Amino acid sequence: MEDGRLFLNLSLKELDISHNKISQLDIGGIMSLTSLNVGWNKIGEKEAEHLSRLSTLTSLDVSDNNIGERGVEHLSRLSKLTSLDVSYNSIGDIGAEHLSRLSKLTSLKVEYNGIADK
Length: 118
Known about the structure:
Order of helices and strands: EEHEHEHE
CATH architecture: Alpha-Beta Horseshoe
Number of domains: 1
Number of helices: 3
Shape: globular
Structural class: alpha/beta
CATH class: Alpha Beta
Strand content: 5-15%
CATH topology: Leucine-rich repeat, LRR (right-handed beta-alpha superhelix)
Helix content: 10-25%
CATH superfamily: Ribonuclease Inhibitor
Mean pLDDT: 90
Number of strands: 5
């Protein structure tokens, strides 16, 4: 997956590519996706921005990556999300605030992100 576009032309609803070593990912061309698991990779802020184009997503797992607070800001544009796991991403307080935009969430995991009580 040298250019990160291995799955570009597929008509997938669900995709699990977790527990790999993926650091560059642009699967914005799979507009039919409703569930995506990219947990335990090396995905950063730029890749989170690409993922934010997947407007049909209802479930997203980006746990144990490097998306940070800016990556969460991008992901907060996914208005159809009902389930989100951003555990182990160092999103901090600012990133946690971005999550409040996701009004349809029924499941949210944010473990180990350096979030403090205010």
